[in-house]
Every structure is written in structure tokens, then in C-alpha cells.
């Protein structure tokens, strides 16, 4: 039986009347995305038409999911909200704090030794407030959610950008910061700008070496890392129906890499099969009763150009396997062109590591397809030229894969089976030799490949592809190997050509597991104690941010002017810094240390205008804060791209940054800044970015008139006394301005709870 079946039943019961109300108001056929959005309005049945990309709307998500690295801060904030129990079904998953080094058993035990204080905190908080807790080793949050919680037509939010993975089961699942999660867990509406809609029509069917991963790798190449910003990507067509549910999940998962709000697919037979295989036949029975509402209307898919803001069409039968990268997930190269491009660009051709796993590609089907390639290497006497690592997606997947002999195939090729956790995908990889920072190439089935992402080495060229292609290229050990056409020499000197991969959508004997790692919360948690030691360097109770005094903020200094790509990895690195995700002051020591300073092009080096000396970014920020001088950060396009981590907003806030002024924002990061009571502003004229000098002083001239749709004027005072006035845009509505006035959205929640 499914978790929270009564909640799912209630969602489906209100579908018919809410869809009818939406049809009456909108007066046109509906996409799947619109159906889910309109049935999850906070105020109930639709009474107005919302304008895509403009209208702010309050929604009522069905559930919340949090991973351990972000759950710490989210739950520390929830503890301040004055609530006894979460208002919607919620879960926390321990998957980020487990480092990959030696192998599953040793790495898991090492993590338990190092992170016991944090895991105990999460366990006790979850127990107290009615939150399900998935223990270390249980699996990667998004695979566990797909196996246990995702359901067609539902809406969920999660404190991880790859929450969107649940679109593989027909959800609208959206990555958010912890403050958003606190809103929903506290029983309050969740606000989102009504998304634009991008339709992707899939025709044909996958064949040969092409995998579901190649669909999103192709789409990323078309839309780039910001082409999906503010939009839901809805996949449809006969090609979409031909994909497995976990394949759909893979495609939705990497939608985060194009900036999409989320991605989703309509309810179909592959979802029915997956739900039944994961012991949720009861969900299928309920979903079938409202099946017509769990996919887009026929008219929409027949003439998509009328109903979507943008339409892309991909023929799966003609789609070529892709390899994306390095350093950005949207640099898409078909496999037949990769060798040529790699040589031209000077990318290292020898592949040192091949890695399979992450929330993007760690399903049973993924492992079977990769294992079919690995088995050929064993049978045909081929040796892998690259090191090889595997991260199963969940204990259920791992246990079943071991039972069915899949893991042994990889072990026969000397692969290391890591813990059911994120591991190298998020920088939790103790890779031997990475500290030497040598130029090298790795290939993986993950979703992101930003500089330093996997191993901390800025010279590691990381390439993203499907698990089966990872296996083939790890065996070959070369970036210019094309398994569709090339042969390999085996140990006997014979030329061997690999056959295309084969796989099994679902295990023939069914899924199995002895201990899935789930802790059910206490029915009454009132007596559960949550202790945070005052001298802990891992956990720190939060002190509310100060409210705004209503006056113009003046005398601000520039902390850093970021040059080029500045992702959340640049603003608040993961890897070894994950240990401080529950301690705001300690983790603030990584604030913006990866951002490239436009003045001098160095990282973690800025000029302290009080002393004239160069220093590290966090230390300089602390010096300004100690002197009572507010600061600003200036950035380029798509600032805050990547993870949902709200630490990238909380750290600058903690260190005295009052405003982040950029050419454009990534959606989640802009929201996180607003939630933490900061000013997220954009240049009305992008060229004004070039006018900002290292030693300028900044004054807001009309912030005291802060209002929706009203520009803000920034006075820039140069060191020679010359002054310029720059116009800044913002997207704050009346409610969000109240967050700023109160010092943070959480301050407002607490005020209302105490009223």
C-alpha cells in the first residue's frame, strides 16, 4: 500500500470539480501542467485566469521532501515557526552527507561516525514534528520519492532542485529553498509565479544506443541552461508514452539544468506498471478513475502551438546518443562528433573515471542497461581502461540488483560499489589525486558538471551521458571512442565491437528489500527532545534577521562583482562544506569563494576598501559587517543557477549583504533571496554592470518608496566624487515586500503564529 493513501484519494476526489471550474474560467483545452496547477490553488476552485510568467499565485502542495544537507536549515527554521506538527505529509532523506571513497560499507560507517550529531538531530526533529525520516543508506531522495511518494497529478515541493524528478510519475514537483518548505509545512500557502509552458513533442521510439537521457541532453543543447527559466516543460506524444517511468524521471530530473520550474509527463501505462511494481496498485486504482484529468487534453497535443509558449519536436527514432560538457550541462555533442570536437578543443582524451548513479540515473533499468555492456566486456575478455564507480539509487534498487546478479557484473570489472547516496555527483567524493589539480577527463551519468563539482579539481573535465554510454566509454578509456562504430582490442588481441545495450524496465522477480531504512515518526512527538549543543560546530540555532528600518540604505560597499557564470556552487560550495549546512556562521566561511572577481579575475580575493588590502571574500564581508557598513554583490546573467540551496542566500544575508544586483537571476535563487529578506534586483540596462567599479560607494535613493512594479534608483558614487544614477528592476509583489520589511519571510510566519 502507498504512503499517505488518504491524502492521494482526497486529491483525486477534488479533481473533477476543480478541472470543470478551470475549464469554465480559462475557456479552452488544458495542458496537463495547467490541470495540476489549477487543481492545487490555495483558494480552491479557479475564479480567475492567471497570466503565464506574470501572475503570482498561491498554491497548496500535497507534500514536502527534504534532503539532509538542506533539511538541517529548513528544520531549524521550522522550529522557529511555532508549530507542533507539519501540516502536510513531509519527509527528510539522509543522502548528501555520505562521502564516496572506499566502497559502500566502509563509506557508510565513516559517515555515521562523522555525522552522527546531524543524523540524530534530523531523526529527533522528524520524530517530534511528524516527518518521515529515511536513514543514511536508504537511498537518494529523488529515487526514494519516485519509489514511494510520487503520484500522477500531484503537486510537491522539495528542498533540492532535482525534486523535479517526480515528473516521471506525472507530478508537478518543484525545487525550492527551505523557507518555502517551512511555509508549506506550517500550513501556509506557497507562492509561485504562474509558469510559462514549453511543450516537447516526442515521436518515434528509442533504439540502439540511444537512451532517455539523450532526450534531455538534446533539449539542454537547444534551450541552454536558462532557456527553461520560469517555465514548465511538458512532454507528450507517442514517443513519450514509449518511455519507462524511470526514463521519464531522468528527463524531468535534468530539466533543472535548463532552469525549468519543473517538467512532467501525462499518466500512461508505463506509470501504471511502475506504480504496481512498487506496491502501489491502490494508487493506480484511484488514478484510473480520473485518468482523463491526469494528462493534457487531446486538442492540446493535436495542435500544441496554440497552447504552449514554445514547442520543440524530437524524433526518438533519429536521436543520436549525446555527451554534454565539459563545465556546463548544455554543451551538447552527438557521440559521432565527440572525438573530433574533443581534439579541436584540447579536452583530455583519456577517461580516468566512469561513474554511474546519482538521482538522474540510478534506477533498476539504468543498472540493467549498463550491466549489459559490462557483461559483454567480461564475456569478450575486455578490461576497463578507466576506474569505474556505481551508486545505486536506493536500498531497494541495490538489494534487487544484487539479488539479480547485476552488481556482480560490475564487480567483475573491478568497479567500486558506493553507498546508495549522492556521492561524487555533489562533490562528496574523496578522489585520490584530486588535490594535485591535474587536467583530466571523467564521464558520468549525473546531471551537473560545473567546474570543481565532482572532485574539487577545477581542471577535471566532466562529461554527462547515459549509464550505458558511461560503461562503454569507461571500458574503452577514451573520449574519442564511439561504440556505434568503433572496435576495441581485447586481451587476446581481437577486435571487439560492443553490441547495443539491452535492459529490463522492471525486475522480473519484482522489487525486494530487507530494510528500506525508513523511520516512521511518533504519533505524538510532544515529548521528543531536540537538543543542539551551544558549542557544536555542526548545528546552530538560528537568530532572526533584523527587520528593515524603512529608510534608504546608504554607504554600501561592493563585496564582489562576479564575472561570468556564478552558480550556487560558486556562491556556497558543497563537497566538504556540507558538514556545516546546519551551522550558518561556520558555513558562511565559504560565501562566494568560488565566484570569479571581475577585478583581477581571481577567486576568493577582493579588496577591502577600509584597508586597501586584498583578502578572502568571507573575511572581507565580516570586516565590513563589524564596521557597520552594508554591502552589495553584483553579478552577470542567470546568477544563482543550479542547486536550490538557500545557504547561497542566507550566507550573504548573515554577512551583511543587503542587495544582489545582476543582469538576470535563476528562479530558485531569486526566491531564496526574497525569503531571507534581501533585495534581489536586476539592471534595467544590462550595460550598467560595466559601470560598477571596485571602489564605488552605493546609496539607494528611493527604497523608502519600495512598491510592486516600481523601479528602484541606485546612486553610484565613484572614488573621484562623480555620481551616476542607475535604474534597477525587481519582481517583488506586495507580500514579498512585507518579507523584506520584516527581515525575512520566517519572521512574518512567527509573528502570525504568536499573534
From TrEMBL:
SUPFAM superfamilies: Aconitase iron-sulfur domain (SSF53732), LeuD/IlvD-like (SSF52016)
Keywords: Iron, Iron-sulfur, Lyase, Metal-binding, Transit peptide, Tricarboxylic acid cycle
Cofactor(s) annotated in UniProt: [4Fe-4S] cluster
GO cellular component, as recorded: cytosol
Enzyme class: lyase
Coiled coil feature spans: none
Domain Aconitase A/isopropylmalate dehydratase small subunit swivel: start-end pairs: 556-686
Catalytic activity: citrate = D-threo-isocitrate
Gene Ontology MF terms in the entry: 4 iron, 4 sulfur cluster binding; aconitate hydratase activity; metal ion binding
Ranges where the Aconitase/3-isopropylmalate dehydratase large subunit alpha/beta/alpha domain occurs: 41-477
Chain intervals for the UniProt region annotation (Disordered): 490-510
Pathway given in the UniProt record: Carbohydrate metabolism; tricarboxylic acid cycle; isocitrate from oxaloacetate: step 2/2
Gene Ontology terms describing biological process: tricarboxylic acid cycle
Similarity section: Belongs to the aconitase/IPM isomerase family.
Protein name, UniProt field: Aconitate hydratase A
Origin organism lineage: Bacteria, Pseudomonadati, Bacteroidota, Flavobacteriia, Flavobacteriales
